[in-house]
Structure formats: C-alpha cells, structure tokens
Input
Amino acid sequence: MTDCKMEFQCFVAFVIFAALASSLCYAYDPSPLQDICVAIKDPSSAVMVNGKFCKDSKLATADDFFFTGLNIPRNPSNSVGSQVTPVFADQLPGLNTLGVALARIDFAPYGLNPPHTHPRATEILTVLEGSLYVGFVTSDPDYRLVSKVLNKGDVFVFPIGLIHFQQNVGHTSAVAISGFGSQSPGLIVIGNTVFGSKPPISDDALAKAFQVDKKVVDEIQAKFAMPK
Ligand code: MN
Output
C-alpha cells in the first residue's frame, strides 16, 4: 500500500468520524456563534441565529439578561408538596443559545419533587435550607439507586437523562437551587407522563407494565387526570 493511499484512507476515516461526532452533538444545545442572542417572540426587527429568532443585538438591554425574585419563597402546598420556579430561556430571554439555566425548588415539610428526568441537561443542586433525601437511578441493566441525604450547603449532581427525585426529610420547609447544562432542560415527570397522558394509555397496557390489577391503574389515572 502506498503512503498516498493510506493518507486517503485516513482522510476518509476522519471525515466519517467527524460526521458521527457532529451528529452526536445535536443532542445538546448548539454552541453560540455570536456574543448574544436574546430570544424574541416578535420577529419584526429580529435576526435568525441557530434556528431561532434573536433580538437585534444592538437593541439588547441589561434587563434581557436579568431575572429577579428568586429569593421569594414559592407556595409548595399541592399534592406532592413541592414547587419548582424555573429560570430558563422562557423566563430569561438572554439565556438563549448559552446552554445553562437555573431553578429554585421549594419544599413543604416532607414534600417531594417526584421522580422525573431532564432529557437535555445534567442538573447540579445545592441545598439552601433544610435536609433533602435525593437520588437518581442508573439505566438498564443495573437500575442502581444512587442516593444521599443532603444538608444545607451540600451539592449533588443528577446526570443527564436519568430519573431522579428530591424529598424534604425535615419537619420544616426546605429550599434548593439547581443549575442545568441547557437553556431548556426539559421536564418529564414519570407519574404524569405514564398515568396522566392525554388521551390516557390503556389501563390494560399499564396493568401489564406495572404488574397490577386494572383497578389500581384506573385509580392512579384518576388522580393524574385531575387538573393541577
Ligand atoms: Mn430535576
């Protein structure tokens, strides 16, 4: 084999590798190709960047990069006893294309942020007040629970895509702040998705899936069908 032919094969291999690598990257937020891209709803006086409408950067102001009120406790009195306050690109338009986001989570005593997953982001959480029992479960075939009780100042990471939860294990309210590796992490709450879809998944299918009687499925579906 000549050197020339080997070089050509290396080049072809490199092109295939590069193509694969770039297609894998589409699972994540695109890297910004400009300083700022403030998300805008009205496309007049807007430019397209990374497939989204952006405010003309000359018109961007400090308020486009600003959100206030995350210090204010939210009311967690609902069926699970927790309330998430997102600071995603929808709430903070200047986050658009930048690949990060934040949330505040308020917990009633013994309140739960029920099992859920973020399809586009790893989450890093810190406890500001109270004690939380937190965990995530690894995927098939291990399904290993990785869990811990966190106290004020502790930090825990929930890897991208994995199902996780947080529960207040104290008799006082708790507060946590989470950072996300996406401007729009996405949220799939397992209970709502499986038992509260519209229209509902057939109770026969869910009875088989969870190895319980259809009546048990109907009972759970009725709870998730109620408006929140
Ligand atoms: Mn989460």
User: Anything to note?
Assistant: The pocket of manganese (II) ion is lined by residues 116, 118, 123, 158, 164 (CB under 6 Å). Residues 3-25 form the longest helix (23 residues).
